[in-house]
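Folded chain entry
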Amino acid sequence: MKSAVSERMADVRDMYMAHTMMRREFRLLPQLVRDVASGDVRRAEVVGAHAELMCLLLHLHHEGEDVVLWPLLLERGGQEALAIVPTMEEQHHAIEQAHAEVTSLLSDWRVTAQGGGRLADALEGLLTVLLDHMALEEKEILPLAAQHVTAAEWEQLGQHGMAESPKKTLPLAFGMVMYEGDPEVVKAVLAHAPLPARVLMPIIGPRLYASHAKRVHGTSNPPRVGTN
């Protein structure tokens, strides 16, 4: 097993921020879809584009865990990891199935604004399995990661998502996370970014999300996880 005694270990607080963002946006999505009037294709495109972005962020987030995190924990985490990682993998499979159902309905709904009830139901199904997964991950996986994964390895999770995401979505995605993020953790996440990103992202990200939220949610201050 690789020794990490002299290395800085993972600061997993950014994962809690990402989960908070996903809880907020996926909780709001079913009603957003239901509120679109049948045939209102302009509004369906706005909500649908947001749903597509959230589905992409979720997919990349879990893909990074599959590729980077699970192998490291299975290698180093002993019986604790062996007991929980297979459950995480099973939950990812269930989430991907629910995710596939959502995306299969989403493309047609965006252009027709018909069948929104089915899409909203599928989003609720996705939300159910996603909430269960994130709660268990926070309870069991993140403490293990903090013990057995180095900071450099942990950063590979974020790098995977950034590498696979369309570059134009990154500032918005960061603003979505910052909306309920701990400023101290946000600063830590940006600490190793290039100087322009460290300076500009805290300004641009929240502005982009405020504009996006106004368009999608009807307010620049949508309900936070702790208040909705």
